[in-house]
Amino acid sequence: MRLKFTKMHGLGNDFVVFDAVRQQVELDAVTIRRLADRRFGIGCDQILLVEPPRVPDTDFHYRIFNADGSEVEQCGNGARCFAQFVREQGLSTQEEIRVSTASGVIRLALQPEGLVRVNMGAPVLEPALIPFLAAKTQWSYPLEVDGETFHIGAVSMGNPHAVLLVDDVDTAPVARLGSLIETHPRFPQRVNVGFMQIINTQRVRLRVYERGAGETLACGTGACAAVVSGWLRKLLAPRVQVRLPGGELLIEWCGPPQTVWMTGPAVSVFQGEIDLLRLVL
Ligand SMILES: N[C@@H](CCC[C@H](N)C(=O)O)C(=O)O
């Protein structure tokens, strides 16, 4: 089966995007892993599917697969690429598009200068819904990892996030702690792990070890979760510039029950066609 695809990225968090409106796309976990492989396939952190609408008052349905083949609920950088993709491919000319995901409906709006602003929905702070095995506290939870206790924020942006405060993201043990926390038994569906360094109330630096993909150059939902966690800890203002290894996002949140806004770029790199049968052999 031959499929047309577009390679895109949001701040270096890269995607293979398939139009599943005009072509039939069926991908199993093995094919997804091969497509995402940077040597045997196209290479990406996530695969995105643009599908016809499934629920009333939406324009499209959005599916997301991590490089390890797992299907997930949300992807912020991918959402901005989604908006750019449907415009470039002539699938929509609307200023604002409404898109259903496995975790609810998000709204995407193209802005001047290649930016996309996304209403990411309200963060979920109830541990059972993240899911995180803990009794609810205001904003911080002790988590024992490898004999050491860390105080983490726990937030769902549709997908689960743990947020740790660090003095310096450059020296934070992102790979070691990230993989230990990703698979921690208190996160039954695994978790994305953010390492946040606070510069001042309006600026942070962030690195994210993503569930199912490892450390990426940027994570949109991770940036939202980090700002939510920092706001709840009374360390951040409602409008925060988040500097990730791949570039900057603007995240805005005024506290519960408000929705989180994310603004940042989305870039198409190239288009191609791939024969899936050759890929899995
Ligand atoms: N890169 C994404 C998040 C992708 C999904 C995540 N790895 C998960 O498993 O939840 C973003 O920009 O939000």
TrEMBL record:
This is Diaminopimelate epimerase. Keywords: Amino-acid biosynthesis, Cytoplasm, Isomerase, Lysine biosynthesis. GO terms for molecular function: diaminopimelate epimerase activity. Catalyzes the stereoinversion of LL-2,6-diaminopimelate (L,L-DAP) to meso-diaminopimelate (meso-DAP), a precursor of L-lysine and an essential component of the bacterial peptidoglycan. The active site is at residues 75, 219. It comes from Chromatium okenii. The record marks 161, 210 as: Could be important to modulate the pK values of the two catalytic cysteine residues. Its EC number is 5.1.1.7.
